[in-house]
Write a structure and sequence with these properties.
heterodimer; A: alpha+beta; five-stranded antiparallel beta sheet; 13% strand; B: alpha/beta; Arc Repressor Mutant, subunit A; five-stranded parallel beta sheet; four-stranded antiparallel beta sheet; 9 helices; 42% helix
Chain lengths: 500, 230
């Protein structure tokens, strides 16, 4: 017997009539052998059967038709609707009432079963969708799966709109045309995070509905569904399915996002590791011969008595040391240029860093020209002392080189929430217009006297990594002035340590 | 000194033959006996077989971790260890020193630096003469009477400052990491707060140094710790 929803209606009623007619035909031979009360039971059975297979409408129809047929074919006078014995009216009444009740109950049961299996099918479909989405490894694939699913379940055209790097949105699967017409809608939904309905006629892709793909962290994109008949996507059932699909899509897109982030991090770590390994290898390969050269030249200078040979050996040693310093600067620059130097910051007084800087120049010509202003009483600074010492060394070295005479003055002062460190000399100063250029890579301030000018760019990179700034100016009275500004911050208090 | 020196042997652990050659030549010129090893493995053997008076150890050996070797050695020997290391490897130096190495030398280095470090490490530590007076410039620390004088003027040190000064004197000439000093002065459990240490070193410099900005005795080893120079 037919059962599909499409065959309900007239056909179902016809089948109900057929069932009643068949019941009549099958029971007619029993007339006379069986009590009429039992024949009533057979008609009620037919009503129950109709209700079970055809629904509540045909069941009502079968109940009424059954009463009529019973009256017409079985009750005296037969082949007439009139009733001789009026007590049969009670039989008809009870038969109709019982038939209707059985019909309604059975049909209700059947509808519930149908709903349950429909829900199960839907759950199964969504489960399959979730599984497919979990297997997707690209946004294109996710969009394709969602579009296919919604086309099959709801008969709507749907696509995912995901934010692109240029600030716009890209559709997955891509739209053949009119993509731009939906952009503003998508952007609006993405920004608001609220589901939006579009009326017909606003553009060629409407009417439709736009649902944000909301995850715990952020809105990851927009699910846009549109169909020609306006109501199609707006029934409660369709909305429910769309909401579920939107959350599944949000999870899928978020998963893709995080897997991409993780992959990028892996690549970054790997290339960082490679870079460090390369720098370490280069550093080792350059430093080893330099160590040998410095050591042997030094040993030679101490061993040979002859003045000229001693001078030569000393010169070789000094040049090797200069080369070593230059290699160090190149390696420093290479490390700093990769942009991911990790500062080992610790709170310390500037005085200590200045002290260790000056220790580097002990015994060198010109060290007596270095004057240091009052440094105690300054707030402590959070510095990577090793790197910051290089900044000060570079500046002092620079001043000793470019200002051959006159004092070189290092001073510092607190200024609000910054500390300003200045290094001034009384040399020729910086050519007008070159104040920025001296911090460029491979720029030599003043030209002919040695050095490829790595010191200042390194210094600037280190100061910048500390969140500070360094500028070069000329003093009104002549001479260069380098000015470092560093955020002072507040050193943590020193309680909790056993004191005296 | 020369007579003692001829008896003492120094183990040089370095994988670069040319550096080893120069170090050996320098040490031989000072009349030390020299043993050489090119790897951690042969260093382990030589340490047992030769019982040297000092080990000079390159941290960048191809077959293993020099820091690990120092830690192993410290389990059974107080042999002084001088570590050779490249610049920009402060973390390695600190790790080696905290593991028990006594001092370090940054490549490239000269003959005088090497000799000075070796002599400092083979000299008897000042700590053994615990009651002697120590002169640092015009300041005299009398450890028997627990006084610190500049000329006739007594300098007042707090107990912590005095303990810190004694720790420095005990390891005069050698580098001390922040962690080592914190442990020695404040005890275990205070190994990481270098900020605290800096406060007291600052106080000591204010009281003992002529120019605290250019210390002559309490030297900063940037990124590593301090070195006390008499």
């Amino acid at each position: 017997m037919p059962n599909a929803p499409g065959q309900r209606g007239a056909v179902a009623y016809l089948w109900a009539a057929v069932v009643c007619a068949a019941t009549t035909l099958l029971t007619l031979p029993l007339l006379g052998h069986v009590d009429l009360a039992n024949i009533v039971m057979l008609f009620l059975l037919a009503v129950a059967l109709v209700a079970l297979r055809l629904g509540s409408g045909p069941a009502v129809f079968a109940a009424v038709l059954g009463v009529v047929m019973f009256d017409f074919f079985f009750v005296q006078p037969r082949l007439s609707l009139t009733v001789a014995d009026s007590q049969y009216l009670i039989t008809f009444g009870v038969m109709l009432a019982v038939g209707l009740a059985i019909g309604q109950l059975t049909a209700g049961q059947r509808e519930k079963a149908e709903q349950a299996s429909a829900r199960e099918a839907e759950t199964q479909a969504l489960y399959t969708l979730a599984r497919d989405l979990a297997g997707a490894f690209a946004p294109e694939q996710t969009g394709e799966i969602i579009a296919t699913f919604l086309a099959a379940r709801l008969h709507v055209d749907a696509c995912l709109w995901l934010p692109a790097s240029d600030g716009g949105f890209v559709a997955h699967p891509p739209l053949p045309q009119g993509a731009s017409s939906a952009q503003s809608r998508v952007a609006e939904t993405y920004a608001s995070g609220e589901t939006m309905l579009f009326a017909a006629g606003e553009s060629q892709y409407e009417p439709g509905i736009a649902l944000p793909l909301r995850s715990a962290q952020a809105t990851r994109g927009v699910l846009l569904a549109h169909c020609p008949d306006a109501g199609g996507v707006c029934t409660p059932d369709a909305r429910r399915v769309l909401d579920v699909v939107a959350s599944l899509a949000a999870i899928a897109v978020e998963r893709l996002h995080y897997s991409e982030v993780a992959q990028q991090a892996t690549v970054a770590v790997e290339s960082e590791r490679l870079r460090n390994a390369l720098l370490a290898a280069v550093s080792h390969d350059l430093r080893t011969p330099l160590t040998v050269l410095v050591g042997l030249a030094d040993a030679l200078a101490l061993r040979v008595p002859d003045g000229e040979a001693t001078a030569d050996a000393t010169a070789i040693r000094d040049q090797a040391l200069r080369l070593s310093a230059q290699v160090n600067k190149l390696l420093d620059m290479a490390r700093l240029r990769t942009g991911n130097v990790v500062l080992r910051r610790e709170w310390q007084p500037l005085e200590e860093v200045v002290g260790s800087t000056l220790a580097h120049f002990e015994g060198l010509p010109g060290v007596g020209r270095i004057e240091v202003g009052k440094l105690d009483g300054l707030p402590w600074l959070s510095l990577d002392a090793v790197l910051f010492e290089r900044v000060l060394c570079n500046l002092v070295e620079n001043a000793l080189k470019h200002a051959p005479t006159g004092p070189i003055r290092l001073a510092a002062a607190a200024d609000g929430d910054t500390v300003e460190i200045t290094l001034t000399d009384t040399g020729p100063g910086i050519a007008t217009g070159d104040e920025e250029r001296v911090f460029g890579l491979f720029e030599r301030g003043g030209g002919e006297r040695g050095g490829v000018g790595l010191g200042l760019p390194i210094s600037r990179a280190i100061v910048a990594a500390h969140g500070g700034s360094i500028v070069a100016t000329n003093q009104p009275g002549g001479g260069a002035c380098f000015r470092i500004r560093l955020p002072a911050g507040e050193a943590p208090s020193l309680e909790g340590m056993p004191d005296d | 000194m020369t007579e003692q020196a001829t008896a003492a042997s120094i183990l040089v652990v370095e994988d670069e033959p040319e550096i080893r050659r120069f170090v050996r030549a320098t040490l031989l010129a000072e009349r030390w006996r020299v043993r050489e090893a090119g790897s951690v493995e042969s260093a382990r053997e030589a340490l047992v077989a030769e019982s040297p008076a000092l080990m000079i150890l390159d941290l960048g050996l191809p077959d293993g971790d020099g820091i690990q070797l120092v830690a192993e050695l410290r389990a059974w020997s107080a042999l002084p260890v001088l570590v050779l290391s490249a610049r920009s490897e402060e973390a390695d130096k600190v790790a080696a020193l905290d593991a028990g190495a006594d001092d370090y030398l940054t490549k490239p280095f000269g003959v005088r630096e090497l000799n000075a470090r070796v002599r400092a490490l083979l000299r008897r530590p000042v700590a053994t003469e615990a009651d002697s007076a120590v002169c640092m410039g015009d300041v005299v620390v009398d450890r028997a009477r627990r006084t610190v004088m500049r000329g006739d003027v007594p300098l007042h040190l707090t107990p912590i400052e005095y303990r810190l000064l004694l720790a420095f004197i005990a390891h005069a000439g050698r580098v001390l990491t922040h962690r080592q000093l914190l442990r020695e002065v404040w005890g275990p459990g205070h190994g990481t707060d270098a900020q605290y240490l800096r406060v007291y070193v600052g106080h000591l410099r204010q009281k003992l140094e002529r120019d605290p900005t250019r210390p002559r005795h309490l030297l900063t080893e940037t990124g590593i710790g301090y070195r006390f120079q008499l």
